[in-house]
Amino acid sequence: MLKNYLKLAFRNLVKDKFYSLINILGLTIGVTCGMLLFLYVSDELSYDRYHEKADRIYRIVSYIREPDKINKWTSTQPPLVKTLKQDYPFVESYVRFFGRGRTMFKLGEKRFYEEDVYSTDSTIFDIFTYKFLEGDPKIALDEPGSVVLTEKVAKRFFGQENALGQILRTDDTTSYKVTGVIKDVPKNSHMTFNALMSLDANQRNADGWGGFYINSYLLLAKNADIKKLEAGFPGLYEKYMSSIFKRMGIHITYQMQPLTSIHLYSKFDGETNGDIGYVYTFSAIAFFMLLIASINYMNLATAQSARRTKEVGLRKVMGSLKGALIAQFLTESVLITMISLVSSLILVAALLSFFNTVSGKEIGYMELLSPKFIIIGLSIVAFTGLISGSYPAFYLSAFEPADVLKGSFKARGGSFFRKALVVTQFSISMVMLICTWIVYQQLNYMRNKDMGYDRDQVLTIDFQGEQPKARYNAFRKDLLDNPNVKSVASASSPVSNIGGRVIFTVESSTGMKEMAFKPTLVDHEYVKTMGMKLLQGRNFSDELPADTANSVMINEAVVKRMNWKDPIGKKIMLGTVPADGKNPPPTALVVGVVKDFHQQSLYNPIEPLIMIYRRANPVIHVKVSTKNTKETMAYIGQKWQQAYPARLFEYRFLDQDFQSAYRADELRGQIFTAFSALTILIACLGLFGLATFTTEQRVKEIGVRKVLGGSVSSVVMLLSKDFTKLVLFSFPIAIPIAYFSMDRWLQGFPFKTDISPWIFVAACALTLVICWLTVIYQSLKAALANPVKSLRSE
Questions:
Q1: Rounded-to-integer distance, Cα 64 and Cα 211, Å
Q2: Of the candidates 332, 326, 323, which has an alpha carbon nearest to the alpha carbon of residue 395?
Q3: Measuring CA to CA, which residue among 414, 415, 410 is closest to residue 400?
Q4: Rounded distance, CA 487 to CA 480, Å?
Q5: Which DSSP string corresponds to 569-610?
Q6: Of 758, 734, 38, the residue nearest 363 (C-alpha)
Q7: In this predicted model, what pLDDT tens digit does every residue of 88-107 receive, in sequence order?
Q8: For residue 313, which of 44, 299, 545, 751 sits 20 to 30 Å off, Cα-Cα?
């Protein structure tokens, strides 16, 4: 019986090639998009799950509550996890990561800078799962002066040679012995690294509770009581930290984050992660694309129903049961879906590399052979085949044979349902169109917003370490001898990545008060080089040596936070006053106020900033002309090698750093745009199906109108009017959904664009144009047809 169903289904597909092609095309697009989005969502959900003990690993994050604000940091104090291990038996182990940042490694004459280098406890390989290519994970970081490299870094230094036992030196001339090489950290990890170093004596014994500068992880026993651990955090504050922070009005507590939830759910200052909202969004898009593709099949199948009425009538007269007819039509639907699935698998394989580029993923071809992908493919066939085939199957099998064979049957039933499906299609399509528009408007807003400084043609050179003042002054002077170098400045960090907070004692209306602020060290050329605007007071001066000890500059956010009416001359002590009052920190006066500028990306709010004067700092900013850029960079590189022959010349332009901060959202925006366009395309196929159905049902009416003198334009308007009503009806459904969805999405940005009414107007107009372009073919075809043929049987 099944073989017969398949044979008949195949014959019907071949019989009407154009109809079959449209059906298969719509389903193929929907299934392909669904599979690609499934791969994206699956990758997002896989973060950190490759660790064998992932379900028992937790990161500890800090909540620092000041009288007027709450800071949320991923960093903690060094002794925290050691203390928890001592106090709670179900804490099996811990590991801490001390960030070293960008580090230069030397092997003879070879020198390389490596990003993401950490010093860490030797217990890391007991907690996290990394594949060792060389060395023993049990002892790899036990000894001081040990380093474990990733495969990529090891090959860069040693090629195909054995790296184990080799000696590397860092830019501070410390020697490290290579004790292990591991496979590169998988991309689906919330934290990646290129090298891990053993802790030095100071890091091993660090017991200060005042500084937050490490990342801490715990490995808990199975079925450990997390609530019991969190309940003990207030006691930790009272026992170890209250003597430091209580007098400042600062309270500290912590939160346990499951390792597998960090990537999608963690939203802390300075952290770049995924977003569970996008997982839900892309999952919904995949579902709706499959649904719209299924709706297309329903519309196209019922549009062709007039051609199959006699077939149904004859089969019923010959004794065919309704159930057999339903099975036949469902078989046709599943067959089309299977053909679409095979086509989709070919397309997914062909497009995977391009999709990886667009999405920023590294999904391998072996993922297409994974059990979960096979299961999802079969599920798509079952869902799409049954959903898309169910309505036509029950609709066609309900025809009365007597009416059909007498020629008096008219397929009118279900018109409301079909129109409702088209309204649903265009409502979904319009929601996606509006959302895409607003996403790109927000991204464009962030790209073009005034950051408070001039990022164009500014390169940064990271010195990494204490910079010799005499060499810097000579280097700076040499650079300024080149007419294409406009200005040179130095700071403690790049202007776009000022992090960390320090306690200062600041003058307030109630006396000197200890509060946390962001600090940065700058020289007297910094404000000029970065194009910042001085609002009050003066800049630091090279002619006033005392500025290094008794002067600071601040931003507007400090003025607002302190509620100062006249900030110039206000006192700021560069540190906290000891409890015994002895050896207080130096007191500086505010000499200038700069306009607020973004110290990080627009995902972070502007924070109160204190600028401290130092003549030579680790990060050098160079403002260059747009003329002869290549020659200018060669000149700067030559002078760098003369001033610092032991250090590599590596630089980045600020606008590159700026763009990279929004790369993840831009990639998501590209995905959203592509699938929005495809959703509209599939919806247009559905509209085409309904146009086909309507023109076939009204062919005699059109013939009569033309015989009675009706023009082509009047017939086109007649047929287009009904479809226009359907699309117009989708507007009041789509607009509120799109508005509230995007308004909620924009709430996650401290700085955001406004949702303009013109976006909705333009989206409605564009949707109408797409609708008219879609139906005009069938309308013109019907209007231009010879009325004699349609009326011949009358």
A1: 12
A2: 326
A3: 410
A4: 7
A5: T-EEESS---TT--SPPPEEEEEEEEPP--SS-TTS----EE
A6: 38
A7: 999 999 999 998 877 888 88
A8: 299
Whether the Cβ atoms of residue 121 and residue 95 lie closer than 8 Å to each other: yes
Question: Residue 295: left (phi > 0), alpha (psi -120 to 50), or beta?
Answer: alpha
Residue 511 identity (one-letter amino acid): G
Strand partners, 117: 101, 195
Helix (H) or strand (E) holding 751: none
Kindly give the parts of the chain with pLDDT less than 70: 1-19, 171-172, 269-270, 300-329, 388-415, 418, 464-469, 579-581, 661, 689-690, 692-694, 696-701, 703-712, 715, 778-794
Distance CA 7, CA 14 (A): 11
Measured in degrees and rounded to the nearest 5, phi and psi for residue 233 equal -60, -40
- The SS3 assignment for 486 reads strand
From the number of C-beta atoms within 10 Å of its C-beta (0-12, 13-18, 19+), residue 353 rates as exposed
CA 584 – CA 727 distance, rounded (Å): 73
- Domain spans in the chain, listed from the N-terminal domain onward: 2-43+275-446+663-791, 68-249, 464-646
Number of residues assigned to the chain: 794
Q: How many Å apart are CA 172 and CA 145, to the nearest integer?
A: 13
Closest by CA to 453, choosing from 502, 501, 516, 498, is 498
Tokens describing residue 119: 């010093």
Helix/strand/coil for 516:
strand
Kindly report the pTM of this predicted structure.
0.82
Q: What is the pLDDT of residues 671-701, one digit of tens each?
A: 878 888 888 888 777 777 667 666 766 666 6
